[in-house]
Design goal:
Length: 215
Amino acid sequence: MTSHKTTIGIDVGGIKKGFHAVANRNGQYLEKFHSSSPDEVAAWALAHQPRAIAIDAPSMFSLEGSSRQAERDLVKHGMRCFYTPTRALATQSRFYDWVFNGERLYHALGLPIFMGGPHLLPCLIETFPHGIQISLWSHDQAANPQGGKQSTRQHTLVTQAGYDISQLSSIDFIDAALCAVTADYFVNQQYTAYGCETDGFIIMPKKPVASASCP
């Protein structure tokens, strides 16, 4: 029997926008799904028996202050990102409604969240599309495409992941696909984990370094 490697990427929005999800099989597009219900998208994702699920939403709040170590580390490496404050601070602004929606999804999925070190699959990982794009172009930052968000990320999927985007009709599904690609890298042990055990890790794909050819 052929063994299939399935991964899932999920883009998280607010209550009305909901969740956009993409499933990959052996590194390529398999299926997509949208729902405003965390329970529905979790049931869809788990039915695929994925090796890993990558989510574009914070896996936890900061334990103190206005940001997490992972976010500060990413900024130091040239990847701008939203900062996640403590839960108490987040409740004071409607901006963080999507973060609480992401929290509902993590709970609905019920799988362990990657917290560094050795891990068992399946598990959940946190990532985000802008950082994924920067990471996939890290070998050639000068060629990193400039332009609109959707066209730039489409180009990244096609050129850096060899990905068929013909079924991805919106930026939300494009972002979900980038997350699914990152889950593939994670399963293949090709990733960088930013952060710490205290307030979580954010995972970015790490492209293997091409070996020099002999003259």
